[in-house]
Amino acid sequence: MNQPRVETQREVGDEVRQTTCYMCACRCGINVHLKSGKLAYIEGNRDHPINKGVLCAKGASGIMQVTAPSRLKAPLRRVGPRGSGAFEEITWEEALSTAVAWMKPLRETAPEKLAFFTGRDQSQSLTGWWAQNFGTPNYAAHGGFCSVNMAAGGIYTIGGAFWEFGQPDWDRTKLFVMFGVAEDHDSNPIKIGLGKLKARGARVISVNPVRTGYSAVADDWIGITPGTDGLLILSLIHCLLEAGKIDLDYLAQWTNAPLLVTEADGPEKGLFVRNAESQPFVIDRRTSHPAPWDGKDVQPDLGAEWQGNRTVFRHMVEEYLKPGYAPEAVAARCGVTAARIRQLAAELADVAFNHAITLDRPWTDFRGNEHPNMPGRPVSFHAMRGISAHSNGFQTARALHLLQILLGSLETPGGYRLKPPYPKPIEAHPTPHFVSTPGKPLTGPHLGYVRSPDDLCLLPDGQPARIDKGFSWENPFSAHGLMHMVIPNAHAGDPYRIDTLFLYMANMSWNSSMNSARVMEMLTEERDGDYVIPRIIYSDAYASEMVAYADLILPDTTYLERHDCISLLDRPISEPDAAGDAIRWPVIEPDREVRCFQSVLLELGARLGLPGMVNEDGTPKFKDYADYIANHQRRPGVGPLMGFRGNGEAEGRGAPNPDQLNRYIENGAFYQAHVPEEAAFYKPWNAAYQDWAVKLGLYETPQPYLFNIWSEPMRRFQLAAEGFGPRQPPDHLRARLKQAMHPLPIWYAPYGDEDAAFGYPVHALTQRPMDMYHSWGSQNAWLRQIKGHNYLYLPTKIWVEQGFQDGDWARVSSRAGTIVVPVAHMAALNENTVWTWNAIGKRKGAWALDADAPEATTGFLLNHLISELLPDRDGLRLSNSDPITGQAAWFDQRVRVERVAAEDHPRGTVEPMFERLPDPPRAGGGRDHNSSAKNWTASFRRKFVAPVGGET
Amino acid sequence: MTGLPGATEKRLGLVIDLDTCVGCQACVTACKGWNDGGIGLSDQDPYGADPSGTFLNRVHSYQVAIPDAPAQVVTFPRSCLHCDNAPCVTVCPTGASYKRAEDGIVLVNEDACIGCGLCAWACPYGAREMDAAQGVMKKCTLCVDRIYNETLPEEDREPACVRTCPTNARHFGDLADPDSKVSQLVAQRGGYDLMPDMGTKPTNKYLPPRKKGPGEASPLAPLLDIKATGIAGWLDRMLGKI
Predict the structure, then answer these.
(1) Does the structure show a pLDDT above 50 at A942?
(2) Domain B12-207 in this protein, CATH class
(3) Is the pTM of this model over 0.95?
């Protein structure tokens, strides 16, 4: 046969540059292939610790993001009314001097009048430091509307968290259980891990109202009712306790279960009994006398009762053996039968106790006790937004950690393992700083971990010091701030008004706000001849919906055109066996008047004369972000990057090395410091790990600690709510503080459940698709072909009861509003839940999409249904958030669903429909004009030329 | 009509694990990216009302009703199966569609393709896509320009979809070799032909989802009757075990 010759030796490009992806928050390593300086192909970097060569749908579409026509091209100044989208292009000098002219007087008179909030920012150690030096208390990133419950619930309990701060021991775990995990953090590592489990035939269980993605491949699916995960988990704990299937040795050694809790009424009730040195202690089983909690060879008595004070263990057992936690008592509420709950408890116990494993690795704990090996209980868990985005999410995260603790699996072989810089106890974190003084920096970082009411950010009159009311009585542990409350609070002047709102990468007039329609009004409302929020500065790389609402636009670069550092000072790329950090660097040069936002921030800092950003003679200290990354020192010898310090050989600690970024580039744009084998498990208590962490600079002295089954910081807030202590909460918050701040993990109904009684019985959720990162994907010519439409998925019960037909619409109402949206039937769904994909819906005119793009005509957001406030009680503005952390309670949402037959909705577009946004000046180009492929005309012509081979 | 080579020495193809595929679409865009740079894959109306482009690999999602159990969702990647008995080849009027004798890969010689679309009509799997800008038929090449490409590191000489798959649900190899990793997987996991009744004898195989449902651990027996003994009794029994 005469086969044609096929070109098999095609060269992908002439150069490969390795950098870090930014198509989501996963931060995978990528090989960027260039041909004649132009982007040719992007693939995963096989040597990279996060993705090990693989890449997701988003990452492989990066080429369409970097060439998207939505890219901004030059600084813009608003010339029409705010929201009209009328802009003029200005020079960078005009843009920078305008920003400085607005900010400088604020710093000199009232620094809190500048609120600086960043969205999906991966440079928080820089942006936070900048805000600290500006002196405003009003800084945070987007964690408050993302998943702070997951972070804070974990850190207050185990000194680490789910999110991306740890991961199951994928190579050893035998049973993996996910709660509320969709395409959340982190993305490729979870997929790689699931692949490992599937290859080994290990068992995977998913607890999730929606059976898609990871839940679809899980070996078992528990379609729980939203907001009841905590109750299910506590019921599992009830079952394990009832059967005595808990790890007593683990509890006695590594947790605060044997500490004694003060019984006597008064200001100490519920706090740990302390000795003369103010140290909590245990009762030693050998002597029945008090002994230090960290003493060598001490055998803590879990069941002790000493001078009328009982152990945490006893309090815990008494709580969870209550009949209210029995599977039969919680089944209806959770939407899971009692038999299924008992079965799941039996599976957990079976693997933990009948299939335990042991690694033959001797190690020494912080007490000096030597252990011949590392026993492991190969049950692991992961949880994310599904449990986090509820008003009971903090306690639910705590409950899940307690379950892992009782099984004795956390930080053991086969269990969930933390990644450096975690484990890290609360005591090693800062407390929040907030006192603003004109012309001065804050005395420390904004965000931290509150230990008691003394640490709250309150003004002398007791009012919140922060514009988002972070670290106030309304949400005392708001470790990531409450970005979703900044605009509503600034608009309401509650607690005060601001002058300039400075936002980075945060689409607050659309998918990143609750009640988006109302937020647009807040941004444009005028009072006394000026906007209520007088000035808005915004930096983004793309023509997002937020651009139209800013007065000054500082256009950012795309991710391949910039420097970045993925730092141990904020969110590194560590693995359980290695600390890791990484960089981005400009693998292509921008072809427009755009600048890396972080370089712009440093220049603004220099022009404002902010400490740390200017030399003694007033000249800028850093040329740009790259200069800062290599030369900034947060503490002596510790900077943004840990690798190649000093003479290039120093790791963790060492003088700045001017060649550091080049060394990173040579190394694939990342660096890893490996955890020694004997330090790899039992890290919070492992002396070898603690010494390694100090050597690396993660902290200055060893920080061993006990897992906090009983949370003293929480109890201190309960005490305040009970009337003890000098700092007292307002009366209207006492009851909810008493309930939510229970020192043991408990469950209470999500606040949104109240809406059920007002005719909104159905739970409404969103999920992030695996092939989109929030609003960013729709401008991508490839990704939008995969998911350009979204539907409201209705369970069979609602579909059948109301006689829905394919092509129908639904009127979906809540306390906050009504939307009319297209629907589809989904059987693999909790019967009282509806859901849709997150952020597919776009406003007309945004993101350089045509006005008739499906994202703008039939795509929709649930945000219009979600109030940022709880129902008005006596004029109080309480945020629709977790009462502990301020986490936006997106998933508390309740709605009513009513069929709108296709023929009754002839317009065929969603409601509400907002006015089209005018197209701001932007780069243009994109797929039509900027194809990386061939000359199509030539190719088309070729077919008329005589064939070179093949039969005809 | 175009002839088929008969038995090929090798049968290169994919084994796709439906028990593991989470439907993340990574293979879809990795394929698009690689082949866009190679044979070129156009997009029409990329930022408009009805974007439609050429993709050689797509992932679909299906709901499956299970008697007496909750409904399931199966995500299903679909691309050319490189059939032994490829109807897309035999239907081709110009010989542009052909199956390689040496490895069984089904390709389109774009220089000979007149864009008549008969092959797409003949393929029961819908695995061919007409490129609207080029007017020629496109299909999965099994990354023939990767798997033999000596300009790539040896470990990268596999299809782009396989290299990128985050869950490792896609496997590439020689299905004519009973000892190959892919053949072993097919044997162990009951790999099957898609729509065998069509008589196409596909090379690619799918591994079926494993059986789902509650586990089989024995129910937990209560430690004792807590109602009778109270918490104190529980503590005595439990802590006595230490």
Answers:
(1) no
(2) alpha beta
(3) yes
